[in-house]
Amino acid sequence: QVQLVESGGGLVQPGGSLRLSCAASGFTFGWYDMNWYRQASGKERELVATITSLGRSANYADSVKGRFTISRDNAKKTVYLQMNSLKPEDTAVYYCNANRRIGAAEYEYWGQGTQVTVSS
């Protein structure tokens, strides 16, 4: 059974930090690129950060570049999102996503999400 379980969300003041974790099970974690998405209330889901299967490359949305860092530990089957200098506009539900493309086939899994609220 495939599972992606996020943790680490919560309420934080502007300028603060949080570290999200996503623990994977039920699939070969090291074969998948891993992504963090977020969805604010009333808005579309957006891609925040992505890291390749072996962790050699990462990319970020412009809105979080320089503040967020994605990393992974393939031995622990876990991906992380370190979020610093948080802003109220970072408030959203954050989702972990696993993605693998083989030719025309795409395999994708989602976590249940964790709420991040940035407010004073």
Kindly summarize this structure in a few lines.
This protein has 120 residues and is mostly beta strands. The protein has strands spanning 3-7, 10-12, 18-25, 33-39, 46-51, 58-60, 68-73, 78-83, 92-102, 105-110, 114-118.
Report on the architecture of this protein.
Helix content is 0%, strand content 55%. It is built from no helices and eleven strands. It is an all-beta fold.
Write the layout of secondary structure elements.
Elements: E1 3-7, E2 10-12, E3 18-25, E4 33-39, E5 46-51, E6 58-60, E7 68-73, E8 78-83, E9 92-102, E10 105-110, E11 114-118
Parallel strand pairs: 2-11
Antiparallel strand pairs: 1-3, 3-8, 4-5, 4-9, 5-6, 7-8, 9-10, 9-11
**Low-pLDDT runs:** none
Helix count equals 0
Label the overall shape: globular
SSE order in H/E notation? EEEEEEEEEEE
| Helix share, percent | under 10%
Euclidean distance between termini CA atoms: 40 Å
Q: What is the radius of gyration computed over CA atoms, rounded to a whole number of angstroms?
A: 14 Å
Number of strands: 11
Strand count, sense and barrel status of the largest sheet are: 7 strands, mixed
Structural class: mainly beta
Tell me what portion of residues adopts beta-strand conformation: over 45%
Compute the average pLDDT: 97
Name the descriptors.
single chain, 120 residues, mainly beta, seven-stranded mixed beta sheet, four-stranded antiparallel beta sheet, 0% helix, globular
